[in-house]
Amino acid sequence: MEPFSTLIRTASHEQHRAAETSTFMSDLLGGRHGVAAYARYTEQLWFVYEALEAGTARLAADPVAGPFVRPELYRLASLERDLAHLRGPDWRAGLSALPATEAYAERVRECAERWPAGYVAHHYTRYLGDLSGGQVIRDRAERTWGFVNKGDGVRFYVFEEIPNPAAFKRGYRELLDGIRADDLEKHRIVAECRTAFALNTGVFRALGDEFPLSA
Ligand code: HEM
Does residue 215 fall inside a structural domain? Predict the structure, then answer.
């Protein structure tokens, strides 16, 4: 059987393309949205990372999910600094999740609480993506809305404690390859990864609806 890291990557390839080329993402990367759309997107990420990172203390001791729990990946504090920059000191008071975001966060929480292997699927989908394509988004955001390079507004995309993302991703793939799951469970994880991508696409769709661009 091919290494699990290859399996999960190949299985989500099509959906990755769909996420990357979604209307909202294309418009964001194309510099066609105002900063309000970017702030709204960042706000949605807050709910997702809150769900991903709230249960890590417990998951760290889990034999399946534990090895993936790495504090240097945590994004919530960075998101909070970005939101304070984008929305001002009262950012927390105005925080609101789109229904699609609510559904995504709920699914992450469910996995974190009841199915650690499923949690790994969500962990992979977010953090490996942030370490990769996230850098493209940061670059565009800096250019489009004038954020300081790697500064407030785009801290979410800056992994201060991961100086070598390529090496980190190699290590992460080794963890995936050694995951303590049998073949059936591995297939379930891959299916959950597809769900994770679909949930992301759902958020993009909702954001696209909220920020329509006249053609
Ligand atoms: C415009 C948006 C995006 C761009 C430009 C982008 C770009 C990329 C690139 C270039 C890679 C390859 C990195 C490598 O080979 O090491 C990658 C990997 C990845 N991306 Fe994205 N991506 C985007 C959106 C997303 C989204 C929305 C998700 C899911 C939430 C995602 C999840 C992933 C994952 C999980 C990987 C790792 C694949 C693997 O090596 O196993 N990406 N992305």
Answer: no
- The whole-model pTM stands at 0.96
**Considering the domain boundaries, does residue 10 fall inside one?**
yes
Residue 92 is assigned to a ligand binding site? no
Query: What phi-psi label fits residue 28: left (phi over 0), alpha (psi between -120 and 50 degrees) or beta?
Result: alpha
The answer to the question of whether 16 is labelled as a binding residue is yes
Among protein residues, the one with the nearest Cα to ligand 1's atom 43 is: 133
Alpha-carbon gap, residue 137 to 130, rounded angstroms: 9
Number of domains in the chain: 1
DSSP string, 62-107: -TTTGGG--GGG--HHHHHHHHHHHH-TTTTTT----HHHHHHHHH
Q: What are the pLDDT digits (tens) for 111-141?
A: 999 999 999 999 999 999 999 999 999 999 9
pLDDT above 70 (res 215): no
Compute the distance from residue 142 Cα to the ligand 1 centre, in Å. 19
Q: Kindly give the number of the ligand 1 atom that is closest to the alpha carbon of 29.
A: 1
What is the CATH number for 153?
A: 1.20.910.10
Q: Which residue's alpha carbon is nearest to atom 7 within ligand 1?
A: 133
Could you read off the pLDDT of 135-169 as tens digits, one per residue? 999 999 999 999 999 999 999 999 999 999 999 99
Residues spanned by the domain of 68: 4-210
